[in-house]
Design a protein that fits this description.
Structural class: alpha+beta
CATH topology: Cyclic Phosphodiesterase, Chain: A
CATH architecture: Alpha-Beta Complex
Number of domains: 1
Order of helices and strands: EHEEHEEHEEHEEE
Low-confidence stretches: 1-11
Radius of gyration: 17 Å
Mean pLDDT: 86
Largest sheet: 5 strands, antiparallel
Length: 191
């Protein structure tokens, strides 16, 4: 595993997810350019989160996480499709996301969560249903969000596939969370 940065002024969280295929990521970046104004805050890094591990500082636990992720990778890529937009609320934050439809990815998410609990993670947060966060719309009037979704609802995406699990770190500061890919676990690699 790469060495994770430690900085006293920021809180680091670990998130397990998947880096999006380049074509889908490019399409979503283009979709973010169609936000009407600055009150729509685009996600800084487009990825598919499976679960949040929280703050991890114990080196032995990091090694357990690394070993667990290497051991549960599927043997081949997992195809998925998107299934429209979704608004989710967590505390005072409302996020616009794109729903992902793929029962095998749901199953992989559950396997990852079980492996992390066996590794010693106490406060695991599942990302359910699986959604690619696109923007924070907390300060946008509901009617504006509804109109934007209706205008862009016909947006179709081709079938894509996930071919690796990615361990991300998230440095959260008062302005914005910064998501950094730390380690990739490609499918089909036997340890």
């Amino acid at each position: 595993m790469t060495s994770l940065r430690v900085d006293e002024s920021l809180t680091m969280y670990l998130i397990i997810g998947a880096t999006l295929p380049a074509a889908l990521r490019s399409t979503l970046l283009g979709l973010q350019t169609h936000f009407p104004d600055k009150s729509w805050i685009p996600e800084s890094f487009l990825f598919l989160p499976f679960c949040t591990l929280g703050t991890i500082t114990d080196r032995m636990l990091l090694e357990e996480i690394d070993h667990s992720l290497r051991s549960i990778c599927p043997s081949k890529p997992i195809p998925f499709t998107t299934d429209g937009f979704e608004l989710s609320r967590r505390k005072d934050r409302i996020t616009l996301g794109i729903k992902v439809h793929a029962p095998p990815l749901d199953h992989l998410s559950v396997k990852i969560g079980a492996a992390m609990q066996r590794s010693g993670i106490q406060k695991l947060k599942y990302s359910s249903p699986l959604t690619i966060p696109l923007a924070m719309v907390t300060d946008v009037p509901p009617l504006n969000v509804s109109q934007w979704i209706q205008m862009h609802h016909p947006q179709t995406f081709s079938i894509e596939s996930i071919s690796e699990i990615t361990l991300f770190s998230s440095w959260k500061n008062p302005e914005t969370p910064l998501i950094i890919p730390e380690e990739e676990y490609p499918f089909g690699v036997v340890i």
